[in-house]
Design the sequence.
């Protein structure tokens, strides 16, 4: 089954947040394990995680924790998710390696999304944004050269905003 979400391709943490969107009302991909399977496949994690109720609950916990960090700067729940795993550093025959170690595999996708948020926050926290369209709940990582992107998609939310502004001036 194809991923029904209107915006794909964001870093894992933001892609997880974008499992909720507005399209003829609020939508949520993660209402069941079928939706979890779609998200895992889109994220490239379907071969590393089970599509079951326990994984779904862990992923929902991570989504809420990531949202709390991005919207409210509250990090307690994120630290609880991160507590389910760690990065082991090793020297291998091919050189240094960082090995993800998440003993409970049901927490692997959730932990990876939380870890991804840490990387985004370390790189450029000000580039983690929510779409500026008032009816949009989607998030994006601004990779524009000057860091001024406002919409998750210029083709949808950007055009709608500009059209509304245009019609408001004429009225």
Sequence:
């Amino acid at each position: 089954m194809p991923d029904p979400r209107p915006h794909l391709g964001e870093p894992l943490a933001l892609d997880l947040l974008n499992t909720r969107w507005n399209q003829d009302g609020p939508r949520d991909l993660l209402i069941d394990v079928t939706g979890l399977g779609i998200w895992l496949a889109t994220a490239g994690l379907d071969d590393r995680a089970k599509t079951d109720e326990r994984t779904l609950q862990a992923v929902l916990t991570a989504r809420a924790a990531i949202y709390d960090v991005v919207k409210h700067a509250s990090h307690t729940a994120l630290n609880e998710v991160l507590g389910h795993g760690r990065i082991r550093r090793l020297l291998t025959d091919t050189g240094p390696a960082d090995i993800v170690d998440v003993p409970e595999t049901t927490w692997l996708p959730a932990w990876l999304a939380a870890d991804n948020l840490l990387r985004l926050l370390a790189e450029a926290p000000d580039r983690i944004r929510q779409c500026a369209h008032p009816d949009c709940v989607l998030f994006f990582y601004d990779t524009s050269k000057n860091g001024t992107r406002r919409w998750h998609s210029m083709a949808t939310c950007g055009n709608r905003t500009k059209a509304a502004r245009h019609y408001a001036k004429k009225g």
